[in-house]
Structure formats: structure tokens, C-alpha cells
Design a protein that fits this description.
With about 140 residues, this protein is an alpha+beta fold. The chain is built from four helices and seven strands. It has a seven-stranded mixed beta sheet with strand order 1-2-3-4-5-7-6, sandwiched between helices.
Length: about 140
């Protein structure tokens, strides 16, 4: 498995194809909610297996040093084997390397304990997306 981090248009297209499969087709989240106009300004992580795109996530960095991780998606065949953790950790490591101070996420409520293992703290319940209750969580990056 290989993880690529970047902002180029080809990487973004591959990330969007994974998200379309997972969010639009499987979770029935309207495409316009996924394609929010932030892809070009965000940093994307893409996991490939033998050249095939299998997982993605993106990090949008703000001028104040905070950031927002979103659009974590893994194709069905590769779920449950640690691929999501690989893509999340890759973006967290990248955020630390570029001096980001905090990472916020809006995750499905059932993923609370999963993200707590990465050091995210629950803040509050936020919006419903389709039939999915999202929660706000934040990870404060500690400088050593």
C-alpha cells in the first residue's frame, strides 16, 4: 500500500471517484454536499494498492493554523483492515510537519471511539447529513 499526499488535479480526481462511490452511491449522500468547492485548496491523501485507488481523506488548512480533516473514505473491499487508520494517520503526520496547530473533524457519531484513539476529543453533536448524525471533534497538535 502506498500513500500519496498532494494537491494536483489527478490526485483530486482519484479522491473524488472514491468519495462518489462511498458517499453518493453507498451512503446516498447528495453529491452537492460532497463537492463543496474546497477540493482545490485542500491537501489530499490517497491510498493505492497495486496502482488502484482505495482510500482518501482531505485536510483544509486555515490561515490561523487550524485545519479541518474531512472526506475520509475507503472502498468497500478494503474496509476493516486498517486502511482508514493509515490515511488518517498520514494526514495527521503531514499536518504536524507543516506546523498545523489543531485538526477538527465532523465524523459520524458511531466513529467517536475510533477517533479518540488518535487523540481527538469530542466537542458536540453537529449537523445531520442525510440520515447520518455528525459529531465535532478536535485534536490539538502538541509540539515537542
Amino acid at each position: 500500500m502506498e500513500v500519496t499526499i498532494g494537491k494536483d488535479s489527478e490526485l483530486i480526481k482519484l479522491a473524488q471517484s472514491i468519495r462518489y462511490q462511498v458517499f453518493t452511491l453507498e451512503q446516498q449522500i447528495p453529491t452537492e454536499l460532497d463537492f463543496d468547492g474546497l477540493d482545490e485548496e485542500s491537501i489530499h491523501a490517497l491510498v493505492t494498492e497495486q496502482g488502484e485507488p482505495i482510500a482518501t481523506a482531505r485536510l483544509t488548512v486555515k490561515e490561523d493554523g487550524s485545519s479541518f480533516m474531512a472526506r475520509v473514505a475507503v472502498t468497500e473491499t478494503y474496509r476493516g483492515v486498517g486502511v482508514a487508520s493509515k490515511v488518517v494517520q498520514a494526514l495527521m503526520d503531514h499536518a504536524q510537519n507543516i506546523s498545523v496547530e489543531s485538526i477538527e473533524i465532523h465524523a459520524h457519531g458511531y466513529l467517536r471511539k475510533y477517533y479518540e484513539r488518535f487523540g481527538f476529543e469530542f466537542i458536540k453533536e453537529v449537523e445531520m447529513v442525510g440520515e447520518h448524525q455528525l459529531i465535532e471533534m478536535r485534536h490539538q497538535i502538541v509540539r515537542t
